[in-house]
Amino acid sequence: MSIWVAAWLFSAILSAGVYVFCRRAAVPRLPSLILAASAFPAPLLQLISTSNSFVYALDMVTPLSMWCAFRSWRNCHVSARRPCVALLVAAGVCPLVVTSVFSDDRIGLLFDSVNLWRLGGAISILVIFGALPRAKEAAAEYWLCVFAWPAIVLSCAMFAQTYGGIDTNVFFHANGQQVPVGQDWEGSGSAVLGLFRAALGYISDLAICAYAVGRPRSVAVRWITLIGCCAAFLVCVECGSKTSLIIGLLLLAYRVWSTRGAYRVVYLVTSLVVVGAGISTLSSEAVLQSLPVSVARLVKYHGMESQDLSGRDEIWANATGAVVADPLIALGVTRKASMPLGLTSPYVPGMYHDEYLAVFMLGGFFSLSLYLLYLAILGWTLWHRRNGGWTRKLALTVFFVGLAQAVTVAHLQPGLIFCCSVSLICAAYGYGCPPRVITPQRAYLAFDGEWRANGCKADRLRA
After folding, report:
1. What is the structure's pLDDT at 150?
2. What are phi and psi of 270, to 5 degrees?
3. Which pLDDT score, from 0 to 100, does residue 450 have?
């Protein structure tokens, strides 16, 4: 089977599941289709012979999502509208403007344009879901499955690639690298569906969030979230995402701690029995050999000799030194001679492996203050309404995970590979914000002409 066909097949299964669970959560058809298409993880095509030229489904669906966001803008609550504009400016517009003014770097200009386009599509999803009416408790439970399902599909794709010989390693084959089936640069089966370690771990943490927020009443939802949590941990360990693995363990600890009564004792006893049985049957060397090199280094050397960590430390140190040498960077004056060395392009946000640092280096204090201020406003909105149902609990949990992930990868900047995760995150934020209008007639203005006509007629009767 062709690598591309296999990647598209698994991605279609993932997107179909997202659409089905969105519909079960009482999300209208068009928003469900937009989110399902945006969550399609595999690239659709490749423009040139490099993985940096991938075209994703989010790129194709962005015009439609922007049109729907424009139609539903008035129905979105002000607590969601203001952060949308500010975050789009700080994380998307400012890097592009700074690069175009102070540099002739074509690579940076191209990547910043792609980042802005995809960020506009993701922010549009936030506006669309922020304008929707909230479902009842029984239907809202299936919103958790939207975030648990991707981890299940990714674990199946990873298992099929490692043991079944069904290769979906699009990312490395696009670069012309001869990689054995089921392996990546560290010898693990992490690169599936055009994604690799960071993106896979990020999507897995979203599935753990769906399990950590509580106990839904539906038995089917309980089993799907539980299976998604187990699959997420398998993906994190197998792909070697250290940050995602640590965040996942913290989320699981929160889940155990928040469980009341005898269930907490059952969780603790079961965990101790499973861990004790595993330790008694396996030696430390056997465990290290079965883990990816990235995780094995973290366990054995406590991160001191990890090439991944040392590389990021070097990038952060170079960026800090560049700001000290030329303080005008803090004001947004990013001259090419003053930017840090050792990067393919210092004007690409993803090169810094830290979204906060990327926003600061490509916009100065103005962008960073705008970014942090409206992230705080969004977080306060989610925290203030955290007891309003499953959608708001999940949005708040995802928010804290996004803040932690932004220290090493991306939170809201899609860049080149985070299209699926950023789309799901923005949908969680939008659906977790308070709706401006409760009546479904006004909330469906952007999606259904019949509802629009009924809503306008009702408004005339009230007048």
Report:
1. 92
2. -60, -40
3. 35
Quick check: 357 and 319 in contact, CB under 8 A?
Answer: yes
SS (H, E, C) the chain: CCHHHHHHHHHHHHHHHHHHHHHHCCCCHHHHHHHHHHCCCCCCEECCCCHHHEECHHHHHHHHHHHHHHHCHHHCCHHHHHHHHHHHHHHHHHHHHHHHHHCCCHHHHHHHHHHHHHHHHHHHHHHHHHCCCCCCHHHHCHHHHHHHHHHHHHHHHHHHHHHCCCCCCHHHHHCCCCCCCCCCCCCCCCCECCECHHHHHHHHHHHHHHHHCCCCCCHHHHHHHHHHHHHHHHHHHHHCCHHHHHHHHHHHHHHHHHCCCHHHHHHHHHHHHHHHHHHHHCCHHHHHHHCCHHHHHHHHHCCCCCHHHHHHHHHHHHHHHHHHHCHHHHHCCCCHHHCCCCCCCCCCHHHHCCHHHHHHHCCHHHHHHHHHHHHHHHHHHHHHCCCCCHHHHHHHHHHHHHHHHCCCCCCCCCCCCCHHHHHHHHHHHHHHCCCCCCCHHHHCCCCCHHHHHHHHHHHHHHC
Give the pLDDT score at 446.
42
Count structural domains, the chain: 1
Which position has the token pair 């396996």?
282
Q: Which residues of the chain have pLDDT under 70?
A: 1, 47-52, 135, 172-190, 259-312, 341-344, 385-389, 435-463
Tokens representing 30? 């068009």
Tell me how far apart the terminal alpha carbons of the chain are, to the nearest angstrom: 63
pLDDT at 344: 67
- Residue with tokens 């059952």, as numbered in its chain: 266
Tokens read off for 408: 């090493």
Domain that holds residue 408: 3-462
Angle at 142 between CA 242 and CA 43, to 5 degrees: 55
Task: Specify the pLDDT at position 25.
Answer: 87
